[in-house]
Amino acid sequence: MVAEHSKTVSLVLGGGGARGLAHIGVIQWLTENGYNIRSIAGSSMGALVGGIYAASKLHVYSEWVLAIERMDVVRLLDPAFNRAGLFKGERIIGVLRNLIGDCVIEDLPISFTAVATNLRSGEEVWLREGKLFDAIRASIATPLIFTPYQYGARTLLDGALVNPLPIAAVLDDATDLTIAVNLSAPAEMRPPPPSAPVVTGGANRQRIRAFIERVLPARTPSIRIRGPIDIAFDSMQVMQDKIARLTIAANMPDVMVEIPRDVCRFHEFWRAKELIALGRERTARAFASDGRKRLARGLT
């Protein structure tokens, strides 16, 4: 294990849709094992989970997301007709604001950076002040899915487009350890779970079900129909995988927690229980591996 005095942590949380729920398990393991998280930087879902933890409300969010079912995911989506994305993202952010309570980043007890992308310039943007959920909404603005977010004079998109693992944002921290959680680790060909059942009913529910199958198609072991959204997600995944590898090569953290990129699909937020458990398991594995490496080098 890491030396006893190495307790303060700068935590970097990567982007990757529903895989980001594994971040909850990572944080749970770290805090239960005595690590003091002093700083967090996150892209996309990493910004969402990290920001909520920085606001001392991760337990509230965890209980909420553990109760989500497949139909609940669709109810949280607000169609953006004739706009630059399928959904506006206002409904989900409104629900989270009511659940967590909005606050100002500068007042958080933990240093926090949400990473976004400037649509006009293509530059990486570090959001370290202002309302927490404004910064989170900008960082999760996944192209095609959510509309871009107007943040002051800038139009911002998902931070994972330019930096899915923003290690550079914590390099100047005066902490003992930098721990990064990479949601773009090599695929492990995990078997997909059975599709969650969708309740049938009246005409409105039937229309909702048809909408789900078009936009968020079910995953089955035997066949997967690849639509335009699948292709868009897979294309972004290829790009983010390469950027993450370059980021890690340039700024190797002290401990790397690896979450395989094929553990779930982008929108499968109803799988929170297994993803949180995976985050805990992979964090324990990463620290055990780090401990073996230190012993091999004669370190304590």
Any key phrases for this structure?
300 residues, 9 helices, single chain, globular, 8-stranded mixed β-sheet, 39% helix, disordered N terminus, alpha/beta
As a percent range, the share of strand residues is 15-25%
Largest sheet: 8 strands, mixed
Average pLDDT, all residues? 85
Spans of 5+ residues with little confidence (pLDDT < 50)?
Answer: 1-5, 194-202, 218-223
Shape: globular
The termini sit apart by: 8 Å
Overview of the structural elements:
With about 300 residues, the protein is α/β, with parallel strands linked by helices. About 40% of the residues lie in helices and about 15% in strands. It is built from nine helices and eight strands. A hairpin with a 2-residue loop joins strand 5 (about 150) and strand 6 (about 155-160).
Topology (elements, then pairings):
Layout: E1 8-13, H1 22-32, E2 36-43, H2 45-54, H3 58-66, H4 70-75, H5 90-100, E3 111-118, E4 124-127, H6 132-139, E5 149-151, E6 154-158, E7 177-185, H7 203-215, H8 228-250, E8 255-260, H9 272-296
Parallel strand pairs: 1-2, 1-7, 2-3, 7-8
Antiparallel strand pairs: 3-4, 3-6, 5-6
Helix pairs in contact: 1-9, 2-6
In short:
This protein has 300 residues and is an alpha/beta fold.
